[in-house]
Amino acid sequence: MALSSGDVKELLINLLKIYSPSGEERGIAEFISSFLKQHGAEAWIDEAGNVLAVKGSGERVLWLHAHMDTVPGFIEVRGEGDLVYGRGAVDDKGPLTSMITAFLNSKPEVTLVLTLVTREESDSLGSLSLIKSSLPKPDGVIVGEPTNMHIAYSYRGSARVEVKCLGQGGHTAGPGVEDNPILKVYSAFNTVVGKLGNGQSTESYTVTPTVINCGDHPSKVPTECTMTVNVRIPLNSSCMELSKVIEGIECVKIIDCTDPITVNVNNPVVRSLVRASLRNNVKPILSKKLGTSDMAILAKLTLNLAAYGPGDPTLSHGPVEYININDVLLASNILINVVNEFGRISMQR
């Protein structure tokens, strides 16, 4: 059953009303699974909590891949004209809505697989679980992300780094105050920045402290202090290189890491997106992204990849998040055209 433009806006608003930070996606997964079934799709929820659906039986297999989770932080859901506000409007429920719409409204000559995953904003468990799944192996994957409808073929990597220092603790006026774990943590953090640098380009590291947990009383030196640091890894580096650079810095260890990825801009997914954009009078723009996505994980299945979706990525994770419903509709139409193009395009270039 095809969705109208009114249905699409209603779907997006309903998805935004379901609060779904990483690890708490069960409610939204059940809603989406039920919605897909009501509209005639074969859909189910797997052991990782992902919502999966398959349509068509063509020889080529195309995945439409997006994530259901958001970062924490509730934002009131409301509509103002064409703008829809709410946590995840941009990242990632706007792109996800476009993909659901394209899946339901397309008549694929390919085997079309919808993979809506959990925990992308934390440990990417949802995507990782699909690497060895029994789903039809993809010949191409479109990763739903807010790219302003640019065609993203490159993402920096990302590492979660823990800086954890210990001390003797005690009175703030007592001996040994120089053994303060808070000071040790900031010293270690500054050492990390000194070794990596700190920039805002695809060719530089970005080192950002995000959480700090130290002490429990204003006149007591704590015995422990922990800082969580997000490190974005440039395209010309890797998790292994990062590990080598910060190896030996006291108190510092890498908790998890995703490598940067760059795919060939002539791969059939990118070319299908270019052609589909032109068919909808949208100038195709290829871009490298400063952030990180599950593209690096999905590259274990195929290198025919691109990220694409509506939404201004600078609004992601912020206190104000909104998307234009017309962009969601346009992106879904372009994705429908991509499904058609991918069934016909040459896989060689």
TrEMBL record:
Please give the pathway this protein is involved in.
Amino-acid biosynthesis; L-lysine biosynthesis via AAA pathway; L-lysine from L-alpha-aminoadipate (Thermus route): step 5/5; Amino-acid biosynthesis; L-arginine biosynthesis
Cite the active-site annotation: D69, E120
Major location (coarse): cytoplasm
Q: Name one Pfam family in it.
A: M20_dimer
**Which keywords annotate this record?**
Amino-acid biosynthesis, Arginine biosynthesis, Cobalt, Cytoplasm, Hydrolase, Lysine biosynthesis, Metal-binding, Zinc
GO BP annotations, alphabetical order:
L-arginine biosynthetic process via ornithine; lysine biosynthetic process via aminoadipic acid
Please list the residues that bind Zn(2+) 1. H67, D91, E145
Q: Where is the Peptidase M20 dimerisation domain?
A: 155-246
Function recorded in the entry? Catalyzes the release of L-lysine from [LysW]-gamma-L-lysine and the release of L-ornithine from [LysW]-L-ornithine.
Q: Which NCBIfam families match?
A: dapE-lys-deAc (TIGR01902)
**Per its record, how is this protein called by name?**
Putative [LysW]-lysine/[LysW]-ornithine hydrolase
What is the source species?
Caldivirga maquilingensis (strain ATCC 700844 / DSM 13496 / JCM 10307 / IC-167)
